[in-house]
Amino acid sequence: MTEPQASQPQAAPQRIPTPRSVVQRLQYDPQADIERAAQDAEAFWLEQAKTFVWTKEPGQALKWDRPHHTWFADGETNITLNALDRYAKGEARTRAALIWITEDEQAHIYTYGTLHDRVERFAAGLQSIDVKKGDRVIIYMPLTPEGVIAMLACARIGAVHSVVYAGLGAGALRDRIEDAGAKVVITADVGYRRGKLVDLYAIAAEAIQELVGVDYLVLHERITNLHREHDSRTVDFQELMKQGKAEAVPVNAEDPLFILYTSGSTGKPKGVVHTHGGYMVGTSYHMKALYDVHPGDVFFCTSDIGWIVGHSYIVYGPLVSGSTIMFREGAPDFPDTGVLWRLIEKFGVNVLFTAPTTLRMFMKLGEQVLKPYDLSTLRVVACAGEALNPEAWRWAQEHLGGGTGEGAHAVVIDNWWQTELGAPTIGTHPRWDAKPGYAGKPLAGVDADVVDEQGNPVPVGQQGYLVIRKPFPSMMRGIHGNPEKYAAVWNENPAGYTSGDLAMKDEHGYISILGRSDDVLSVAGHRIGSADVEDALVSHPAVAEAAVIGVPDSIKGEAIHAYVILRRGFEGQVGRGLRASIIEHVRHILGPIGTPAAIEVVESLPKTRSGKIMRRVLRAQAMGQDPGDLTTLEG
Ligand code: AMP
């Protein structure tokens, strides 16, 4: 871990009570849960678990042998029995499960009955190409119902899905397919972004070119015969739908449900493993308790299935709780800046889950963009994934929530979690006072703290490391193929699981997230390892060495700034398209989110005597600050 880098804590802002007019609209009061969990967290989670459908009900909660933990390990179920069968086979059969909106604003509604049918069929299709329990399947799909169907179909037969965000490039996709040891890749011909087609099939075909372990490339054609040349392993998505229907395969609660790759501080992708049982219980609990979403509500989540928020709150959380989830392909300001707000009005959305970057974008555009729309059906606006700065909170509370007075109809809440944690961990419940700049308090059943390197709690108002002392059900069970890395996150700090974030606590137990303590960047809430971008840069023929840092960006939180040392002979090409060529190269490997906003050509990089690049010095230089202690700097 590098030394703390985060910005200094701000002066303590006030706590702002949720207006009574909003509290009256809330449906769930978690106070009893909080008290029960404080008394006995394991019993609390087991009681929650017993409200689900199990083929064998668990009698056991946590088994804990640090760093390993299991939950409900004597239980047997399949998450799709809970997400689909129990609704599709009952009165809720005709309830809307998915409302999918295309980029050009067409709405497609899938009831629980329809979704169940599609998943049963695609699951049988996967079986017909020999996908079995435990096999890994990569899903590289645009944000469409077929992406959701593919995830659920894998789960149904006990296969392990690994969704790769369809904005990532061929190199990042190949690394993930290889690391997962996937035998099948599912993709679509195209995705839509700002009216343009993104050729996903070409990227997927390039990624698997030399991968002999991949047996099939499943292609969902949105445009008939767009691709004339197919990789010989290609099979048609719709053909696979014609192979009959598959029942849910009962699996142990601890069997893996998915692997989701995220960035760590080293270049290798980190495949976070989640399970059927604990993940199901943990994610759906927060649907009611934190987000206050209930059957009959419309819940609009603006994330993507490529991220943990999409797994938990587009797919599993909403469906396991029997709610109606709305999601949309495309950018939030395209085809015009009114699209999100028009959809909220049109569908009477009750709860919106979005990213601070999106709120900041609209804050910059100005509230006149929202004015024409009736947003009064909203009751909760939840934000996660990156820091929700006080200005953005205030703006959103005023313009999406109706202010802080008694006329308000909604409350804006922050919540903090990670791919590794599966579900909200620290948050501000809608009934709790908001404290802008603070994510909130540990939620029911969570034991989190801010500590020093020795694991001792740091005093109120001081910066420390955010740790979780004891496991909870939706936490990851491992890192695929890398037990050492998994053990390290539990062993690095004696107090517990190390989140990699720096934080500060106030006298009421509210926690403010101050930034990362490692070399991980956050661009529009997406985690990108500095090392991933540096590896991509040095794979360009002109680049000898590279270092990247995050510089503050008023909308995206951070932007990537790259420093490169050129190989001999390339110096003359600066100014002749070399920077653009390097940027394009990185974009091809990592996709748009890993692409540097700026490239600076330098003669040397600040390094320690042991040769490690001191990004802290680059950061200080970029921001005109004092670089601090330079005693380890190479002479
Ligand atoms: P990911 O695993 O991609 O969801 O990224 C998790 C990281 O995003 C955390 O370790 C934090 O650095 C950051 N993050 C997530 N939620 C918040 C939040 N509410 N406030 C501040 N940072 C957050």
Keywords:
18 helices, 635 residues, five-stranded parallel β-sheet, alpha/beta, disordered N terminus, 32 strands, single chain, nine-stranded mixed β-sheet
Q: SSE layout and pairings?
A:
Elements: H1 20-23, H2 31-39, H3 41-49, E1 62-65, E2 68-71, E3 76-77, H4 79-88, E4 96-101, E5 107-111, H5 112-128, E6 136-140, H6 145-156, E7 160-163, H7 170-180, E8 184-188, E9 190-193, E10 196-199, H8 200-208, E11 216-220, E12 234-236, H9 237-240, E13 251-252, E14 256-262, E15 270-275, H10 276-289, E16 298-301, H11 308-320, E17 324-328, H12 339-347, E18 351-354, H13 356-365, E19 380-383, H14 390-399, E20 411-416, E21 426-427, E22 441-442, E23 448-451, E24 464-468, E25 478-479, H15 483-491, E26 497-505, E27 511-516, E28 520-523, E29 526-529, H16 530-538, E30 543-553, E31 557-566, H17 578-590, E32 598-601, H18 615-622
Parallel strand pairs: 4-17, 6-7, 6-8, 8-11, 11-12, 16-17, 16-18, 18-19, 19-20, 31-32
Antiparallel strand pairs: 1-2, 3-13, 4-5, 9-10, 14-15, 15-25, 20-21, 21-22, 23-24, 24-26, 26-27, 28-29, 30-31
